[in-house]
Amino acid sequence: MLKAFRTVAVLGAGIMGSQIAAHLANAGLSVHLLDRAHDGESKNHHVEAAFKRAMKLSPPIFFTDKIARRITLGNFDQHFDRLKQADWVIEVIIEDLAIKQEMMARIEAVVRPNTIVSTNTSGLPVAAIAAGRSEAFRRHFLGTHFFNPPRYLKLLELIPTEDTAPSTLARVQEFGAMRLGKGIVIAKDTPNFVANRIGVYATMLGLQALEQGYTIAEIDTLTGILVGRPKSATFRTADLVGLDTLSAVLQHLHGAIPQDESPAMFAIPDVLRNLVAAGALGAKTKRGFYQKVKGEILALDPRTMEYALPAPIDFGPAMAIAKVKDLGDRLRLLYKDQGRAGQFFRNYMRRLFAYCINRIPEITDDFSEIDRALRWGFGWQMGPFAIWDRLGFSMVLADMESHSMTIPAWVMKMKEEGAAGFYTSAAVPTREMSVHGEMDGGRSARSNVVIPPSPPNSYGEATPTNGGSDDKVPLLKGDLGGSQPEYPNDHIDLDAIKADHHNLLWRNAEAALLDLGDGVALYEFRSKGNTLSMKVLEGLDEVMTLVERGEFRGLVIGNGRDHFCGGANLMEMAAMAQADMARFGNVSATELVEQSAISGLIEKFQGLLNRIYYSPYPVVAAVQGRSLGGGAELVLACPKIVAAAESYIGLVEVSVGLIPGAGGIMRMVSRATHRAATETPAHILPFLKTVFETIATAKVSSSALEAQELGFLPDDAVIIMDGDRRLDVAKAEVLRLDQIGYVPPAAHNTFMVLGKPGRAMFDYAAYVFEQGGFATAYDRFLAGKLAYVMTGGDLTAPTIVPESYLLDLEKQTFVPLLQQPKTQARIESMLTRKKPLRN
Known about the structure:
42% of the residues lie in helices and 13% in strands. It is α/β, with parallel strands linked by helices. It folds into three domains: 7-186, NAD(P)-binding Rossmann-like Domain (Rossmann fold); 195-471, N-(1-d-carboxylethyl)-l-norvaline Dehydrogenase, domain 2 (Orthogonal Bundle); 494-674 and 690-747, 2-enoyl-CoA Hydratase, Chain A, domain 1 (Alpha-Beta Complex). The strands form five sheets. Strands 3-2-1-4-5-6-7-8 form an eight-stranded mixed sheet, with helices on both faces. Strands 12-13-14-16-18-19-20 form a seven-stranded mixed sheet, with helices on both faces. The chain has a three-stranded antiparallel sheet with strand order 9-10-11.
């Protein structure tokens, strides 16, 4: 490990600078954020106003509000000497070469000799920014290109110059990967580097298809989720970025790459020029290639420059391709299609492939860097070279040759040597050694860009938040899931593990037990949405028995998808509740609890989670993305947690008219009471108040750190910035716990509940929420049920109770709620509309 950074100075508090500073603070650094001095009385006016605006961005830029305290604001006139404290200075000022050069001169005069300095730029020549500086300064200098928003997008391009010392690059590379959780791509000092150079070309391929008779809706369908890219596809992404920004990028590129074989691709097309001239700049002006009018999404007709509802898409037989789940299979079928869809896709991909292979070694020596850049920066599931491999290397190459495309010598050498593909051949060019002395191209290839509402980045510029319904661009219908291609990487490669049948220890239709090696097993959900279906729960019970035989040192519960668990399978639960109603009719709540199938399911679920919590061997949950409802209860039950920083955990049962029923209330109450200084009600009450408000409002944490504050994660949870490492770290945690002699939590846990006096306070809080218009009458009813369980039911005074007491109260309260008409309406809304109903 190289020396880590502790203090960083960020120069420039605009949208990008403030967000870079926030992400550094999220990673635990002390940050100085400076901007130009204000001419008025308050010299910090500019930086304070900019930071205030950044604090209001959605999604939030900080893991928790408290982290903002790690940032110290200042101005260039009064506080520039703070740079003496910095281990790393990141310049993020205006994209003007002369102004950046002047800033570098000021920086060199202040910083310590070993301070690393980087310029954050999306396309200016990095070496020119340091022109005129001393050799010692240039050895500690490089370019950084964070993609926006920095907290959520994984890509960080590093651009060393000829003068950059290998140790400088190595230090930033290691820190960026391990502490900032970034996917690092090493780019050459060429215009727009790697991701934007290829990404802009791909965007222009889409725009040019308008001239070939394809509509905006058709192009976005054929460049969106159907082919493993974000649903914003080509034109919605352009609107989000800003059409003025796109025009500026094109203007810069067109003049900066005279040696490029496709200069005409970067000329601003008339349709884009006309939109910018008319002030239709995309999402920020609510009009661009799309316009939302009275709840409907209209698309531009480039012939008339008018907006209209898109015509229904009909690609003939190709419509069925959308139903194919595997992404590679979809792409192969689309490439072979003989209709309009196939014709577009073949032409688009041939040209993209040709452009990519001719950028090597211009923009990078390693083809896999292009794939990583587009997945981490633009949200593509597969990069161009992986797609080419899946389509068939020889077939596509022959197709390109038949269209007289320029094929560079290194690809022709692959053909001569009989290469099967880019990722299976030793003939392809690659950077021989990384700065660490190991083969490069070995970082994880799994994308981590599906995150809470935030669009994919393009061109490294700020993009507004998604906004949900605005993205309802017409698409081919179907389940568009897809498998990831296999890449060499230094993380646990779950696809490779699953490809070896020797690693499969057990499976049913919706779950599997896999051997991770070194005596560690992985229980993987395979249900739709990673829900806790009957088969998943039954499988987990069986797996616990298998592991308890002593052949393994411990168990990891996790998966390779973007989200840990979507909660209980509502459809199964609703069907079971309806069957109970038909079977028992109008029986009493007590009889229903004693006899219903739902009651039996809840009891088994509670027992299973208790079995996990008190397991004699280490059970570690590898958590990422969403863990909701029953998924949050599973997280609460796992004695050890490894969580990606981007983990969104919540007991959201009230949104479907229920309360947690599998131990979620019990564990939250237990954890809250044990965090209090004593068991006196006055000390416990503030912690329980947080629990009550969190569950009653269905609050979901915005990060793993906030999940700790809310009580969903324990204080000893291992939180990692790079979510792609979660399985590696979880496996290591199992081995560590086993090595030191794992001791499960003490059995027969008891804790204090507050009884009726405490319930009265929570009932009053629910009343205030209803009176203030923040809750419906049924929300208040559910809050009352929650308060009843949390405080011990009918107990008249604070009392010490065992876990089993609250578990029984959860079951007794949960089961009758399924018979409530308003609960049934909420469940139906979630199942049919995918939206919560506030009735």
